[in-house]
Amino acid sequence: MALRRALPVMVSYFFISMAFGVLASPYFGSLSVLMSLSVFAGAAQFIALRMVEENADIWLIILTTLLINSRHLLMSSDMSGIFRGLNPIKRAVMAFGITDETFAVGISSVKGTGDWGFQVRLNFLALSAWVSGTAFGIAFGQLIPEKIYSILPFGLTAMFIAILTSSVRGISYAVSAIVAGVIAVVIGSSTGIIFAALAGIVAGGVAERWTG
Q: How many whole angstroms separate alpha carbon 168 and alpha carbon 164?
């Protein structure tokens, strides 16, 4: 079950992280794999790489990536509510692998079942694809035309939109997605994602109450 649900994420992650491996290799070499293993955050890794290219201060890079990933607090807190009865170690293991995509895929499955193992397997499969794609990009990046790997990161956005639209079941879900999407685009910053998510939650709740 976890493999079937994870497969679209794994395929997308492999090719996107392959692009990261190609681009990061001149700066970090094989340590790019360690970065993918420990950070496991596509947007943060690509932005951090761009800041390294521009010789940004290390503390600015750290603060920027923390800000970008702050939205994970919302996702992890939602998951934490589902797995409230688990010990802190198990919850930490589960939280480490939460990304936009693993959250979107997993939340519909674990919300009713509380299947911690499913979410952990889903996270691990996605992480494995992300790390192996990075390693592949480092090893064989010279064989990949620049036009190909330069457009691969857009696949992450396309995949998330596909997951989001497939998760919309009813008016309240649609209202939540539309409100959050519009606000995120209007604000246009990493902080805006947090406000957009909160606004989407409120809008979805109001729509649910109105539609019964």
A: 7
Identity of the amino acid at 161 = I
CA 143 to chain centre: 28
Please, what is the angle between helix 2-28 and helix 116-140, to 10°? 40
Question: Helices 100-113 & 154-167, crossing angle to 10 degrees?
Answer: 20
pTM, rounded to two decimals: 0.72
Provide the token pair at 138: 């480092």
What are the structure tokens assigned to 108, written together? Answer: 């519909």
pLDDT digits (tens, 9 = 90+) for 4-13: 888 888 988 9
In the block, which residue shows the tokens 């996107």? 16
Burial of 99 from C-beta contacts in 10 A (0-12 / 13-18 / 19+): buried
